[in-house]
Amino acid sequence: MSVAKSIEISSTSPKGFEDAIRRGLERTGKSLNDIRSAWIKDQQVNLQNGQVHEYQVNMKVTFVVGE
Question: What is the domain range of residue 24?
């Protein structure tokens, strides 16, 4: 039987939502092993002077902690 845990993370990118997701998962993968899934809970853009400055995603990442 496997045991999994979920954490919530936020990640940003000046390029787009997909890049923010990729960056967040790559960075999380440096700290956690055996990431199994990511659920994108929320997406938003941050503006500066009325223009999109960065894209932000909030996601729930699930990883295995033991078997």
Answer: 3-66
Query: Contact 13/23 with Cβ under 8 angstroms?
Result: yes
User: pTM, whole model, 2 decimals?
Assistant: 0.89
pLDDT in tens, 1-44: 789 999 999 999 999 999 999 999 999 999 999 999 999 999 99
User: Can you list the positions of beta strands (E) in the chain?
Assistant: 3-13, 35-48, 51-66
Structural domains counted in the chain: 1
Query: Do the Cβ atoms of 63 and 33 come closer than 8 Å?
Result: yes
- Tell me the CATH number at 41: 3.30.1660.10
